[in-house]
Amino acid sequence: MGPSGVYINVGGSGHELTCRQTWCTRSGVESQASWSERDTARETSMTSFEAAFEVYWQKLFAVVYRVVGDRAEAEDLALDVFWRLHRRMSEPGAGPVTAAWLYRVAVNVGLNALRAKRRRSSHEEAAAQWTTDNRAVRDPLELAAQAEERRRVRAVLARLRPRSARLLVLRYSGLSYAELAAALDLAPSSIGSLLSRAEKEFEHEFRKAAR
């Protein structure tokens, strides 16, 4: 994925749709309401899809990358989310798609991929989890320790109850309590206690994995 952007070609409805992802500089997460208001009319599939791709590519890529830890795989998974979005928007009578729906699909796609990795051999999993970050070369032992910790974190995520894993991934991807409630169809008043339980569950499993 280079600075010139990511291209996606979508066919299947009598035309080919090409989207170019540009690097957004806006911070934070757009609210469910603001996108719904802009996209309710759904003027054309192309316009709506391009708008969603423009606004949400980086955010959804960040969600799945946080889960799988591999940039190439995260790009493929994020593109899969947009394929699903395009199919949904092409369905007759489909209602407006919200940011909450996109985040829910992204975290599910990422966690499903992570759980599939756990079925590989330990050697394959270790190779798949190794990541680089384009910074200066550091002590190989330090890199190995960090890679092992990332592997353990993702292994624990794959073992957590689905709701706990989704809550943690989306919270640490920057979603507010209100956005978490919308994305996971939970009562806003319950988010604080559910997050606390999820964090305790993660800590317990992480300590078990370290033994």
Describe the structure in brief:
The chain is mainly alpha-helical. It is built from 9 helices and 2 strands.
Strand order of the largest sheet: 1-2
Order of helices and strands: EEHHHHHHHHH
How many strands appear in the DSSP assignment? 2
Helix-and-strand structural type? mainly alpha
First and last CA, distance: 38 Å
Total helices: the number is 9
Rg value: 18 Å
Mean pLDDT: 73
* Fraction of helical residues: 55-70%
Shape annotation: globular
For the largest beta-sheet, the strand count, sense and barrel status come to:
2 strands, antiparallel
Give a written overview of the molecule.
The chain has a two-stranded antiparallel ribbon with strand order 1-2. The chain is globular, with a radius of gyration of 18 Å. 29% of the residues are buried. The N and C termini lie far apart (38 Å). The protein has one domain (7-131, 140-210). It has helices at residues 32-39, 45-68, 71-90, 99-117, 122-129, 140-159, 162-171, 177-184, 191-210; strands at 7-10, 17-20. A hairpin with a 6-residue loop joins strand 1 and strand 2. Helix 4 (99-117) packs across helix 7 and helix 7 (162-171) packs across helix 9 (191-210). Helix content is 65%, strand content 4%. The chain has 211 residues and is mostly helical. The longest helix has 24 residues, at 45-68.
